[in-house]
Amino acid sequence: MNRSLTLTFVIILLAGCTGNLPTPTASVQVTERATEGSVQKTSVWSIYDPDSEHPWNRVFRQLYRRIASNGEEYGFDELDPLLWLDTTYLLDGESYQQAVQVLDEFLSTHAENLVHEPLKRALFQRDLWAVFDWLAAQAEPFPTQRQALERRLAQVIKRVALSKEEILSLPDNYAFAVGSHTFLADVQADHPDTAFLPSGIFQADSAWVPIGRKGGPIALTHTDAFPFFGHSVFLVYLRSPSGRAATLEYIKSLNTEPKPVTAIGSDVALVRRMLLIDDQGDLILSPLVETIQIRHFSPAQSFHEFELSRARLFDGLAGGLVRKKNLFMVFMGQGDVFQIADIVELQASIPDICEACHSEYPPIFNSGNTRSLLSYSREKFPLPDNKQPVLFPTTPAEEAQTVIQWKLDHETWKAMKALWHQASQ
User: Fold this and answer.
1) Does the structure show a pLDDT above 90 at 67?
2) pTM for the whole thing?
3) In terms of DSSP H, where are the helices of 71-117?
């Protein structure tokens, strides 16, 4: 599929899922992190080094900072860059010139040698890779500017790449989050709407079972839609309250029963794992969890989301995971909120965002509604062949290979590989 058709399809998906969303709410405030007597200039943008003017921080700030009409700065604690398909920031005028300048300075001074911690190099690469994919996903507008930034980003991405062994040795931040006891480890029967971070989700013999789909990635919309484009692996986990055997039977029923029932007390989790590019140019699934979204059926749905914070991850706090209550609508968004003059409030809240797509049709009296499990029903998001998916138990490694194969065929990866081979160390 060519770029224009792909983007048209994505835009149709975005419009279909978010038409009923309420007006977002803004909640982020910029605060200083400097300590009394500090010699270096620190701020919320001091992510990769205490000095906010460190070359790594300058690159990150230029690519991720967006300024609202009231002068407030956003993006320093956002996992994904605040860039939409219609965004002209970084492509025109001063923002473009500054991006070229800071990237050229990074490359000419070999600033990749200033930070050696594998964890920071991994996060920095994924931050730049997300911007690269945004640029490469469409040729227009500003084709010359896009290509100029893509060339520079590809060189930096290659220079900070880790070896495969280093990527696989990165910390299991989810295990650290669970071990910190910062969050509840399971659903509370008397308060099912209370957020929790399941402790056993990645145990091979637990009631949590990842599912795959015959013919492609299980979370196809999250894989192929803006802003992800396959640079993360999305895993779908199911859990029956009656244990692993019951979960496996439930998965089987999704293929064999005309109206499968989701038992009260069931859970669905969407886990986003970080892909990285190693120093050989290969895609490697890292141990790092970027987000986890959990739905609990009691039978009404409760929605919870946890997201990776760079600052907390680097500080060793709860694996870097924080609970999110408000989000910028980048995925399934309908336009750059920083470029729309009459937008006062910039973010939307959870569960409103989740319910826009995972709504019940209507709730079944004695169960959670199975049709809100979009991997099964494909409600609003039909597969390319319009067929009912065939689902099966899988493993994170197997699903990662499915997503990686999808990514290898995507235009954004072809653009990266072409520039990767041209880039000099």
Assistant:
1) yes
2) 0.89
3) 93-108
